[in-house]
Every structure is written in structure tokens, then in C-alpha cells.
Amino acid sequence: MATLPTVVINTRQVWDNRENSKLSEVVYKQRKMSAFSDCYLELSDDPVRFEPINQLTNVFFDDSNKDVFTVRSGGVMGVVVKGPKENGKVLNFRMEDQGTVLSIKLSLDHKVLAVQRNNTSIEFMNVNKEHLVVEYSISCKRNASILGFVWSDINEFAVITDHGVELYTVIPDKKALKQLKSTSITVQWFVWCPRNNIAILASSHGSQLQPVAIKQGSISKLPKVETEPRRMALKGDVTLSTLYGTAAVLILRHQSGPHTAEVHVHLLNVSGQSPVKAHVLKLGLSGRFAINVVDDLILVHHQASSSSQIFDIALAEESDGSVRYHTTVAPMKSLKPTSITLPGLVEPQSHACELYSPNWVVFQPNIVIDAKLGCLWHIKLRLSELCQQIKDMSVCTQLALNRTDGKPVLLTLLSDAIKADKPDMNKLQESFNHINLVYRDWVDREVQNQSACPASASKNQSSPRVLIDQNAMFEEIFQTMSADADLLKIERVLVCYLTSLAEYGVPVQFNLNKLLVSTLARQNKFNALQQLLQYGVITDSKPLAVLLLSLGNMHSSSTQMALDMLARLKANDEIQEVLLSEHQILSALKLAKDEANPRKFLTAAKSSGDPTLFHSVLYYFRNHPKFASVLQSDERLHTFINDYNEMFSGSCA
Amino acid sequence: MGALNQDVDIQNFFIFNSQLCPKEGEELKKIVYYYPPSDNTEVQVENVGLVEGIIQFTQTFNPDSPVKSLHTGKQRQLFLQPERDFWIVLTIALPVVTKVKENTSFIEYLEEDVQDNVYESVLRQLYDMYRLFWGTFQHTLEQSDLGTLMTKIEKFYNAYLKTLRMAHMDILTVFKGIQYLPLDRHTFLKIQCFVNDVESNMEYIAHTAFLYNEHVVWSGIEPNDMQTIYQYLIDQLLPANVEAELQGGSMPRNLQSPFTALRRGRFITGPSNLKQAKTVGKVPKIYLFNEDGVLEYYLVVYRALSATVCFFVKGKTELTLDQFKALDEHINPRLSPIVNSIADYCSKQVVSPSNIQESSPKFIYFNKLNLACKSTVHLDNKHTGNVACSADSLRIMADMKNTSHFLGPSGENIVKTTNDYWVFSKTSNLREFYIVLQQKSASLISISEEVKRLCESELEGIFFHPM
Q1: At B126, which CATH number?
Q2: Looking at the UniProt record for this protein, which Gene Ontology cellular component terms does it annotate, in alphabetical order (chain B) (predicted)?
Q3: B445: closest CA of chain A, how far (Å)
């Protein structure tokens, strides 16, 4: 859509105006205005309000600073600048009327105002609080005509003319500009992306699209966008945006004949390769469209049907090898209706805003302006409503995983799916796999970070948008399942989750292992527990071995498994304790070797009531080179010798 | 040598209940079943009467522990009272060799070759197998009458006794263990998920067991019950079906490709050909016994590639053809990738028999808690006597097993035979481990070391008591 550096908002420019758009083909569905619960897009509650456009007032929008300029009578009656937030700082000033304002923009630090009133020059004014002080200007080369200008950095200023780009540095104190660079290229129109500092310069009626990066005092040409040869594009059909951190050129392609419109997505990778068509969004409609990007989702609004489609290029959909074809992830839906309060005769009145109005202009990434109404909204995604519209759990999971606030939504989604009467285990498995793919990558990076450079590693950069780790699963999913009624379900979902972890080679945490053991034990499924342990599903750990030991009174296999586990962990001390508690004193003693504590063993042997055993243990210590002296010196052990003598005095004599 | 050598054989097998007819002169009525039918009634009555007498006589000495066996010069008799008043008796003719001494040949009965614990186990299995399919004797008596019980028993044992290979019973018969398939965690979990998915979708399925070839991978029912079902599957059901598959596979009729036929799974109990079936076919009903009482299930067995899946369908379920079709539809596509990944794993693990040295030690492992059993002594599961060590050694093992309770929770027993075989038994952490190795002029220490190495390599990850 219209992405002029500064746009005079008038209704002609709002929607992509195609002469041949066939509105009749579009089935316009009368929407029940009462059912908004399934609307997955909404406008911000607190729009930026400004004076609506009229005969005296012009409104401009600067998409670098997201400022709205209301210019009354060419500035003589005042200029009001409002930021993207309704309650933000408002700048008010007056200008002398030196002709119709074509474009007006503040520098990125709001200290210099640039105004274009004709095709050949631009005036600058230093902003001192609310007063404009001095005026200085630049003019472009002879015969060149200014198409627009952008503030590319704090004091950097680029003018795009039909002959190329000129880059200046502005020195407000000296009231002067210094040319830094210029590049010469034929330009018919251009689109600027303030986020990536990239401009697309179009020539040959938009069939040649040349991206240039304007940053750090230089202008660098990037490889041309590879479009279909000689296929023309209107300025309004080209959108520059950022998708998943990569600059992207979105070109709306109307098709002739029975075909419906498509959006072609070209990604401007850093690698220096030419941006080829990577994704095609199939709209399935024709007519007037507008494009926004919210949270890396592409929204395509369709005016005739007053509804929006939503696309995610990260979803693995049908592909022909180089291009992936996408269809809307959820059924087309209207934005959620909204209203504003207008001053009335008696009291303020609520006014329902017309959605998809012809007066709308959209700006990147997610701004909608109704100039006639004097409102600027941000489009917001209602993720949980969107997820409810998507039938396929696996698609839903992938979508939610890539959204900034996806975690609570995804957890609710999972939880609801599991609580269903008959959860589809296969779909659940797919969801877990998507979640754990992200999780595994994160775990891998964490391990690398820790081993490589523990302090300097930037954690924020690498952390995924939605990370559902084992603790999150444990706390948000498994612990919330009503434990008593649903042991079998917990067991099944847990096994499903563990399978997915195994698929990605992520070691299972103790809390999940423990939950599995206790869930099986509570169902008295020791046979299953034994098999799971045998096949290594449950990771060995000392606490788990202790848990198994405590279950020994329910099923003797628990003790066996615990001992095996301790043996694998080489936990000799613990094994000794177990053997002692089972009165296998000699076995324990053999295991203890030189580390034995004579008192402990003698006590155990004595309390067994078996004189032979007591004899064996005492004799072992007495004849052991290390313990013989201990037996002599440690007074606490003398009592055992006395007991022994007493026990065997009769037979020895 | 004479030609009169004879293996162990069943002399007779009978079931009686003294309470059925306490009157004199009508002793025949006590006999519920008698095999062989060729024995005339006089012989039958005589044999039963003799056993009755022995039982009553021995009871006076030790009322708490009824008599288990009777040794005579030519035969061995084993007794089992599985239910109140019902006795099952198995009489075995001792094996015979003809020897020549001082130019006269004479017959020698090899009493030592028949071990009580082995054949007690056979007797127990004879009962357990019946009970699995028909429930207890008492249950039938309560539900119907003696006539029905006798018909059921006759029908069952006439067929079953013929399949028993009496001559090659050994220590494995005592264990009646279950062979588990060694598998990696991930593949095992896939099977778990498959089982969970089926059970949560098909609510009429109470439990599931998953076998790959002759090995159990997953069993949802208790080992004690699985034991008998496993014997049934391995000894009876699967061999019959594998044979049928092999015959059908070599000459595919009316099918486009032999591969599609093999890939597609089918029910081996129930409707074997779903497309043409009009009824659900024969689905055996089984009875499982636990603390809570008797549980009835239908045993539906499905086979695809090398996998056998047993579904234990709740006994109250009305089986319909649609159910089978839905089940087939659901599991068939899911099963193939799982079976393939098991096959992949197994092909990586397999040690072909040629790699194993003949002199390398052979072992039998048994865990009495899950009845897991593994043997490198036996070369197949068919009880044909295809073993990798001497029959002597196997007998020594069974004898060791008989006395293993003297060892307590842990211990070792070592026997050296005159032909340089060493037989080792080891009890530890409720497991039993028997090793046989042949080594000339070896010392006790070197044999112990050898055994220790074997334990570490073959049974890693389990706890052995220090010796």
C-alpha cells in the first residue's frame, strides 16, 4: 500500500486502486455483527486521534517516526504533530505559508523539521522547543525532480529524485547540509522501509525493482529483486516489511482472467543473493487489497468482502522446490468492530467505525489510518481466537510457537486438547514434536554457550519466542490435569511427550520421570513400569532409585529395579544400605571392602540374631589388617567383642 | 547297541475327582478325563484307584503339602491338585537304553533323565493352558454340568496332548519365561505410543501386547498371565500361521503384487480376510486370574510383517465385523513404520550364528519378577532339542535350579562334569543365571573370571551381588 515517505492522505490513495478489479466476483457476506468472538484481528482500543482531513487541513504521516502531522492552512494556522501513542507528547508550531506543503517530516530525534513544498527543493527548520528557528534548504540538481525524502539516521537525510539518490548530513548548528554520497539511477517511484533502512527504487513502470541500503553515510545497491520479466508493478502494490528478522518485499500480483490475486514474497537475505520469489500467498479473491504485518504474520485485507486473511511464511506448506505456496491459515474474518467517542450535542456519542472503509490507509507494519475520521489504529492479533479458528492442532502449534506472546496461548491450547474426551494422540505427538524441535535447539545453544564463553554469550539473542521446556510442561500441563480421575490419561500424554523428547534427543528431567513412575505406581502398573525401565525410558538417578525403593513394599520388582539403577550409577554406598536393610549383611560387607564402618555392620549382624553371621562379621574385621587395630582402639566396638565372647563362651571352652 | 532306545513319553494322563462318586463299584464316574483312550476301563479305574490311594496315604504324613511325584523303576508319576478335589495326574515312561554287558543285553531305565521340577512344570502348563481358554473346572460345573465339563476337557486335551514334545523338556520348561526383544528407547516409545493411541481410540480394548517375531516388546498384562498366552502364541498359534503365510507367500493368487499382500496386516484370530468375511470368525475367549477374580477377554491377534499384536478385548464386548474393519483401518498404516524401525534396529544388532564361537560360553538368564528369559543354549523355540550344549549340562542346570533356594538371595553353584563341561549357576537380585562352558584343564579361578566377563558383557546394567 501507500508507503510514500510522507503521504498526503486522500481517499484516492487508500486502497489499491485497480480499474479492472472485479468487485462483482466477490461474494460479500453479510456478517453478523453480534458474533465477534471469532474475530482474530482487532484495532487498538485507544486510537491516536487527530483533526480529520478537510478543505483547510491536510494530514501527513511519517512512517519513520510514526508521526501524524495535521497542517492547517499550509502551517499558518498551526501544525500539530502526534506520535504513535494517543497520550504521547504533542508538538505544536506554526509555519509561514510559502505554498502548499507536499511532504513534512521531523528528523529521528525530532530536532529538525524538513518540509517539501515543490519538486526541486526542501527547507529545513531547527526545532527549539515549540519554536521553529532558522531556515535553510537544499535544492536538487537541475532537471531532476524530487520524488521524496527520508531521514535515514539522526542527522542523515536522503533525497530521492527521478535521477537517483543524494545523501546529506545535516548540521543544525551551522544551518548547513553537507553532501555525503550520491548515486545515479532512474527512479519512477520508491518505497522506503525505515526499519531496515532499505529503499526499493522502481523504474520501467515497476518492472525493475532496485533495493538500496542507505545507512552509515553510504548508499549501497543490493541485488535486484527478481520478478517476472517485464511484469509491471504499481507503487501501491509493493510493500516493504520485515518477516522473521529478514527484510521482505511483498508484491501484490493481480491476475487476469479467472485467476485470483497472489502476493509474492521476496526475501532480502544478507547473503547478497538476489531476492527471488520464495513464497506465494494465494488469496483466492480479486479486488482491492491492503497488506499489514503483525508479529511476522502477513495480513491481507480485502475491501469488498470486508475481511482479512492471515499468512505465515514459516509454516511448511505445499512447495515446488523453490517456492512455497500458502493459503490463509484460518478462515477469512473481519476485524473486530470498534467504536470511538465523538462529541455530541448533549453528551459524547459513541460512533461505530466503518471497517475496511475506503478512507483507510495502511502503513507498515500494522498501522491503519482513517483520515476522514481522524484516527490512527494499530492492528493487533488475538492469538487465542485465531488458534480456535484453526482446526489442525499441529498447524496451530507451529503458528503459536512463532508468536511473541504465544506461550500462554499454546499452553492453553495443549491443555484444552488434552482435556478433550478423546485426545488425538497422533496430533498431540506432532505438536510436541514442533515444541521440542524449538526446545532442543535452545538446549543445544545453551550447552554451547556454557562451554564456549559463559559470561559473554548473549542470551536474549538466542532465546526463542516461545520456549516450552520440561518445567513448563510439568507445571502448566501435567500438574493441572486432575490427577485422581485421569491417571491413565496422564500416563498416555506423558509417554507421548517423552517419545517426542526422545525423538529430539533431549534428556528427560527428574520431575517428569518421577511423575511417570508415580502415575504408574498409583495405577498398580508395575509390569509397565518394569518394561519402561528395562527399555531405558526412565533416566537413572539416585532420587529416582530412592523413589523405587520406597515403592518396594507395593511390588518387589521395584526393589530389583532400584538396585539395578544404583548399580548403573555406581552408587556403592546406597547399595550397601539397601542390602543392609534387607539383612543381606555379608553381601553388603563384600561390597564395602575397605570402606566398611565396623560398628554399623556389627550392629546389623548382632540384631539379626544369627550367631554364625555375627561370628563371620566379627572375624572378618578381626582378621582384616586395617580393621584389626580399629577393633582394638575404638572403645565403642568393645561391647561387640564382649557380646561375642559371651555368645560363644560355652562352645569355645 | 540294541534298537530299543526310547525317549520320554506320556504313559497316561488323567483327571479325576473323588467327590464325584464316593460309592464303591462306580469308580469310573470319578474319572473326568483319561488318556490314552486305548486303555480299557479296568485299567483306567485301576490306575485312578492307585493314585487315590497314594494321595490319601501320603496325606497322613504331611497334610499341608500334598504329594507331588512318585518314582518307580519304569515310570514317573506327577500329581497336581489345581482345584479343590480335582487331581491331574501325568505318568511318564522313563527313557530306555539297551546295554550289553557280558554278552547279554539288558534294558536300563534312565531315572535320572527325568527331573521332577521339569515335568511338574509340564503338568502345571497342561492345566494353565486349559484354564486360559475354558476357565476353571469349578466354573464350568457351576455354569453347566459335568457332561459339559467332560466334553470341554476331552476336546481340549485330545488336541493339546498331541502337540507336546515330551522328550525335550528342560530347564526352560521350568521357567516358562518370556523372551523380550532388546530394543532402543526411542523405538520402544514409538510402540508405546502406538499402543496408547489404539487403546484410547478403541475403548473396547482393555490391554495390548506387542510381539516381534517370537519376542515380546510390550505386554500390557501381568507376566503371570502373559506367560501362558506367550506359550500359546509361540508354540501353537504363530507357528501355524507362519507356515500358512509361507505357503501363501510363495504363490500369490488373485493379487496384483506379492509385496502388497505381505505388507498388509491381517487378523489371525477373527476374520482373516476382511474383504470377504461375513462374520467375525473364530475369536478365542480367554480367562485371566488375578486378585480381583476372573477377567474374561477376547484374544484378537493381528499380524503385520513380523509383528504380532494381541488385543485383549473386554469380554462383555459384542464383536462386530465393522469393529474389526475399523481396527484394521486404524492400525495398519501406523504399524508398518514401527515394524520397519524395529527391523532396522534388529538388523544392526544381529550377530549371525557363524560369528559365535562354538566353544564360547552359553547361558540361560531368567528374572522371576517379569519372567524374562533369555537363552543362548537353545537355538530355537521349538522344543526340538536343538541345543548348543550337552543334554547332561541342561539336566545339571535343572537340578541346580531345584536347589537354588539354598543359596538365599545371592550365591553361586559350580559343577564340573567328567567331560570338561563347567556348569555355573548364579542367583542375584532375584534373577537366575546359568552358564555352561567347555574348557579343558581350566581352574576354578579362570572359570570364575570367564563368568564374570560374561556377566558384564551380556547383562550390563543389572546389579550382581558381590561374590
Answers
A1: 3.30.450.70
A2: Mon1-Ccz1 complex
A3: 18
